[in-house]
Amino acid sequence: MDIEKRWNWVTQSKACFCCLRKGHQASTCKSTKLCEKNGCGKKHNNLLHKDLRNETTNSNEPTLHTIGPARLGKKVLLRIAPVVLRGPSGEIKTYALFDEGSTVTMIDSSIAKKLGLKGEPDPLSLQWTNDLTQEDSRSKRVSLEISAESKEEFYTINNARTKEMLSLPIQTVNYKRMMTKWGHLKKIELKSMSEAQPMILIGQDHSDLTIARQVIEGPKNSPMLSRSKLGWVVHGNVATIKGRVDPDFSFQTCDQDETLHLLVKEYWKTETFGVKVTAENPRSRDDIKAQTIFEKTTQLIDGRYETGLLWKDADLKLPESKNITDPHSNY
What we know:
The chain is an alpha+beta fold. Helix content is 17%, strand content 24%. The chain has six helices and 17 strands.
């Protein structure tokens, strides 16, 4: 597989980006081995290493990742903030991704279970770019509370959707180093993050929690600070600062009514002009001919089945048989 197909396979198989085994995520992987290709040093398997210097993009290739700034040689920090989640079973410190491109708030199923969140099952259909979709039939609608790391005030999140192996992008931020390069960041003191993987994504359905209520900007193409109800976050271009930012992605949800609408739409696009959609793999002419001969000649005679030979050519002519009384015969 090429590198894109490898990333897609790992994502769709819900495997760990470090050891490639299923059942856990990179953030909880026991493996301490880092990528060694070209001195990468990031926490992913060598087989998943991307060399951005030599990478070319193909807009026609379906992929879970959109063409983002990271592919153009730049690095971009996503709006990822440390938060505290609270449920019937207690509190958990984790990270949240603020995604303005998502129409739904989602939480990893493993965290929802630890928090003791209960809810009605409601199948979830996720849609990425290039009409690529993914289904989660075990998704539930749950409610929980969330606060900034300081826990000054908790806010309620209703109708969050659980998602098996949410697999949000991992991000590392060396904030002290960033402050030495951009003076405007010194106005707010933030903690650095190492291999931070969000376990909850907050979409536009709870934009009141993530909308920027105060912004501190610096020079053009430099990172900025923004404050929401969940605290301060640094994000944006970080150009020359070393750190890990996975390729960003976004998605939206499709409810069952919309999915049904799309199915009906596809039906009329094909059935109205006589094209029938089939899940069968195409067969060669020889296969079709052999199948036809088999079906036409097979018959049950005295308790046994008899079928014609599957000749490739219909007008096959065999040579004359040898005469066993011929003294010149080899038989």
